[in-house]
Amino acid sequence: xxxxxxxxxxxxxxxxxxxxxxxxxxxxxxxxxxxxxxxxxxxxxxxxxxxxxxxxxxxxxxxxxxxxxxxxxxxxxxxxxxxxxxxxxxxxxxxxxxxxxxxxxxxxxxxxxxxxxxxxxxxxxxxxxxxxxxxxxxxxxxxxxxxxxxxxxxxxxxxxxxxxxxxxxxxxxxxxxxxxxxxxxxxxxxxxxxxxxxxxxxxxxxxxxxxxxxxxxxxxxxxxxxxxxxxxxxxxxxxxxxxxxxxxxxxxxxxxxxxxxxxxxxxxxxxxxxxxxxxxxxxxxxxxxxxxxxxxxxxxxxxxx
Length: 305
Fold this sequence. Notes:
It is built from eleven helices and nine strands. By secondary structure, it is of the alpha/beta class. The chain has one domain (43-304): Alpha-Beta Barrel (TIM Barrel). The strands form two sheets. Strands 3-4-5-6-7-8-9 form a seven-stranded parallel sheet. Strand 1 and strand 2 (42-44) form a beta hairpin.
């Protein structure tokens, strides 16, 4: 799906210039960061997902492009990278790219455990750490709540021992909201991850208010509905007033809507292209929509759907 780009990548190889993102785009000010409620540690509001996009096995050309994507991410203020053993070779690809990427000291490494049973869960998390080649994960999440009570016990122990920094739970597709809501209310968590975007706004009713009430950090997956949101706006112009919140393309329009919600900490769009990564990262700079502008964004988009 075609997306308007605001920064040309030099040459077919996608070579990045040395300027900081704000200088390169004309958007002034530092990257927008939000606090993790339990600690106050701040994260950039735009992270990176890896489902499908980093599942490339050992294809050398695809790996080279993913290195460039990760370089663009870090060069323009990125920190949170999210993955899962569910995502094929994505974790192995991330480790390969991190080994070849400068500025990885900014990395906030987040992955998931996705298997039944304590022993298998421990083995899987240890394997993920080796694939990423990190000393420890910043965030370990229980993927789609699978065997959550078993893994939660392990993660609580690992957090106490300093083997992870934060723990959380995830869901996607709008599924398992009842189960997630129950866990958010009853068990000690630092992060939750679920789907939210300008079209799928069910999370506004229960999950986002509860996260704010419980002091939980929120990561948003599927911010573009796996790219389907762009099908509604293809060849459609942005509204003139989008420039008031520093939106130069639809990717930024969609992402700024998400991260402007007070309860959202970070969104994790996934991409395999450098130009799309640069678009995404632009959403982490400039102004965010206020409540009135958010309603205006919804109304404009719904007229296009």
